[in-house]
Specification:
The chain has 441 residues and is an alpha+beta fold. It has three domains: 145 residues, 2-Layer Sandwich (Beta-Lactamase), CATH 3.30.450; 77 residues, Signal transduction histidine kinase, dimerisation/phosphotransfer (DHp) domain (Helix Hairpins); 146 residues, 2-Layer Sandwich (Heat Shock Protein 90). It is 55% helix and 18% strand. It has twelve helices and twelve strands. Strand 9 and strand 10 form a beta hairpin. The longest helix is centred in the N-terminal third of the chain and has 47 residues. The radius of gyration is 51 Å and the shape is rod-shaped. The structure holds adenosine-5'-triphosphate and magnesium ion (MG). The site of adenosine-5'-triphosphate has 24 residues, from helix 9 and helix 12.
């Protein structure tokens, strides 16, 4: 960036300097031309005083002294007098615009290249009272020769200016870039407001991203620690049972009991690992899930049917209410969501309790309610049950095979579907979870 700003500044300066030099040369040359023409006009005024044809010789001194060429043209364009003595010639006035202009408008002027290299001849012609035209010409330096003669000093000044602007560009670049460099080192310091206010949004974004990265890293770290901890318990019990069987001291009935323990712990490990895999799948945001039109009522019906036996085992009734309502979503995810909510409602229920699942459209949305008459969730835990591995009553959850990941998965699914969730729960009375799916068509 520094290099780019520096070279841009130098380029602007060089272009500026060259343009100025060129412009100044042109302005100077224009002034020079005006001056020469003004001089010619003065000469003409002076020479006019003489009775032209006869006395013109008398003005010869000044003509001679100033290196002028004086020509007098008759009305028909013949040369009556010429200080170079080329009388009688008829000059082609189309090649001499100043004569043409003088006959037409009373005066005319022109500049033509001289035969001599690098010089120009300036002409000024005026029509006299008798209709004849008097022309005075003077040879002077051309633009080219002026430039050539001024070239060494112009080049010197230009070079000096370029060197000065290079130094200035260097200084300005450093001045411009230093606050940004300082910022790069101090990005975390929130009190250090940036010198360029345009950078504020960028810094805010970077700071926010940085905080997010730290937060995510912390969550990951906690998650890894939790996973390890959760894996440890069933593995320890598997290892313990296996050791007892290995020692040969266990009786046959014990061996069967231990094998059942191993089986249970292994199943728990499998559930846990499945949930973790599912969570990490949902975490990966690269692939957008396949969304389709789904009949939520029908999916809830399938889920209720599937859990019917399970509910009966827990001495809990499960019912479905409501009417057909459609959402746009991923079938597998919605099935998982329904399963997790209904499974919790059965699992954390009381004997002879009930679970009611309700699906109905409301305005342009679809609402899913899972209500139970279970143990409820104490207020202080309600905010946290969607966290990974969070369980209100660890022993109850574990004894029913819970991993504490179900609602974390639900939360992910809700985000993917832009759905909102509302939790109403009273300890000892029951829980009501309401999910609202937006109309996404
Ligand atoms: P998993 O669903 O992964 O098998 P889990 O049921 O313990 O395990 P979550 O579904 O995430 O995990 O629920 C977290 C905790 O919230 C539960 O352990 C339980 O304490 C509480 N909870 C969830 N649903 C209910 C409910 N309907 N009634 C009472 N408590 C609930
Ligand atoms: Mg659960």
């Amino acid at each position: 960036m520094k290099k780019k700003i520096n070279s841009s500044l130098i380029m602007i300066a060089v272009v500026g300097i060259l343009a100025t030099v060129l412009l100044l040369t042109l302005v100077y040359y224009d002034l020079f031309c005006r001056q020469v023409t003004e001089d010619l006009k003065t000469y003409v005024a002076f020479i006019r005083q003489y009775d032209i044809a006869g006395d013109l010789q008398e003005s010869g001194t000044i003509v001679h002294k100033e290196g002028l060429e004086v020509t007098l043209f008759s009305i028909d364009g013949h040369i009556i007098y010429d200080s170079n003595e080329t009388y009688g010639q008829v000059e082609d006035s189309s090649e001499q615009p100043e004569i043409e202009a003088a006959f037409a408008d009373g005066e005319g002027q022109a500049v033509r290249k001289s035969n001599t290299l690098n010089r120009s001849t300036f002409y000024y012609a005026v029509q006299l009272n008798d209709g004849s035209v008097l022309r005075v010409a003077k040879e002077s330096e051309s633009l080219f020769s002026i430039v050539v003669s001024a070239l060494p000093s112009l080049a010197l000044v230009t070079c000096m200016l370029i060197v000065v602007s290079m130094a200035l560009a260097h200084y300005l670049t450093a001045k411009l870039v230093t606050p940004i460099e300082r910022l790069a080192v101090n990005l975390e310091d929130k009190n250090d407001s940036p010198e360029y206010e345009e950078l504020s949004p960028l810094i805010d974004t970077i700071q926010k991203q940085h905080q997010d990265i730290i937060k995510n890293a912390k969550i990951r770290q906690e998650f890894t620690a939790n996973v390890s901890h959760e894996l440890k318990t069933p593995l320890t019990s598997i290892s313990g049972y296996a050791e007892l069987i290995e020692s040969g001291m266990a009786s046959e009935t014990d061996t069967v009991r231990f094998a059942r323990g191993i089986h249970k712990s292994a199943n728990r490990l499998l559930t846990l690992i499945n949930d973790i895999i599912r969570l990490s799948e949902l975490d990966g945001t690269e692939e957008a899930p396949h969304f389709e039109r789904l009949n939520l009522y029908q999916l809830a019906e399938t889920c209720v049917d599937m859990l019917y036996m399970n509910a009966e085992k827990h001495h809990v009734t499960i019912d479905l209410k409501g009417m057909e309502s459609y959402i746009t979503g991923n079938k597998q995810m919605i099935e998982e969501l329904l399963y997790n909510l209904c499974d919790n409602a059965i699992r954390y229920n009381n004997e002879n309790g009930s679970v009611t699942v309700e699906v109905y459209p409301r305005q342009r949305n679809t609402v899913l309610v899972v209500r139970d008459t279970g143990i409820g969730i104490p207020k202080e835990h309600q905010d946290r049950i969607f966290e990974r591995f969070y369980r209100v009553d660890k022993s109850r959850s574990k004894s029913t095979g819970g991993t504490g990941l179900g609602l974390a998965i639900v939360k992910h699914i809700l985000v993917k579907h832009n759905a909102s969730i509302e939790l109403k729960s009273e300890s000892g009375e029951g829980t009501e979870i309401t999910v609202t799916f937006p109309d996404m068509v």
